[in-house]
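Q: For a teaching handout, I want to show students what a protein-ligand complex looks like in token form. Below are the inputs, and the small molecule is C2E. Please produce the holo structure.
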Amino acid sequence: AKAQGKGRLAVFDEERNARQVARYRLAGSMPEALRHGQFFVHYQPIVEFSERRAVCAEALVRWRHPELGVLGPGHFIGLAEDSGLIVELGRWVLEEACRQAVAWAHAAPDGHTPLVSVNLAARQCQDDRLPGQVERILAETGLPPDRLQLELTESAVMDDHGKPLRVLWELSSMGVRLSIDDFGTGYSNLSYLRSLPVNGLKLDRSFVHGLGAAGLATDPVELRIVAALVQLGRALGLTVTAEGVETELQARRLEELGCDLGQGYLFGPPSAPGPTGPVQL
Ligand code: C2E
Ligand code: CA
Ligand code: CA
Ligand code: CA
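A: Here is the structure, written as tokens, with C2E included.
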């Protein structure tokens, strides 16, 4: 039995090794994948509850891998953060999203430019060159600064002493909108929020789940938690967006609670940019 146990351990080690090797290989092939145009961006509509009108689109990156097929960001964003490639990849996504928003504006009958929202990794926020990069991309694409929203997580925008990073003020003074992503999942205290130059909060989908995911009723405790988070956001004058809205019940609850915007499969999955985009204005 003992020998057998050892054998099993060896198999586990081998599996773990194989996984590591696969990860290294994937990470190693990313720079070339970026050069060869294997990354692409899908856009998911963000909808106003009252009118059910898309007012924004979130850019979500994917990788068309020659052997593995299409990979979601869960497979490679972490690797890119570890290797540092996220700075280059993130800049590419930003540029691509800004170009796309300008293309939608040209296609719109009234020339109105939709808001486009782009995720930033912690590594990008900690890079002093970020504001300059954003400024240059806006100038080159011609996207007005207030048509760009950047989504940053709570942990990414604080320094080691729990103080907000300076880049936040630089970005916000350029007129770019800032939104706290995955709000509620971090463990920072809430008092910092008051001092941050942000325009919005995105409630993580784990909170939205309890409001009545498919086949489930609304959980009264979860409802009170989301109510408190929405009220907090509104008290601070922030636009509150709920992620992961999948059912009409969730949408109704969120609208009742005064949540401004929603995003999720109910309104539309992330998809390739059409000529006028997921944003119908
Ligand atoms: P996120 O910022 O929380 O983005 C929302 C994720 O939820 C997306 O997953 C989206 O496809 C998924 N989603 C949307 N609606 C629903 C719904 O109704 N139900 C459920 N269950 N899921 C829904 P995706 O595209 O796989 O992206 C995962 C994460 O990868 C994102 O989470 C974001 O943190 C990160 N990510 C994506 N693109 C980028 C990027 O360009 N840069 C960086 N740094 N991170 C990115
Ligand atoms: Ca509304
Ligand atoms: Ca996001
Ligand atoms: Ca989330």
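A: Two things your students might notice: Residues 44, 60-61, 72-74, 77, 90, 93, 119-121, 181-182, 205, 243-246, 263-265, 270 surround C2E (ligand 1) (CB under 6 Å). The chain has a mean pLDDT of 92.
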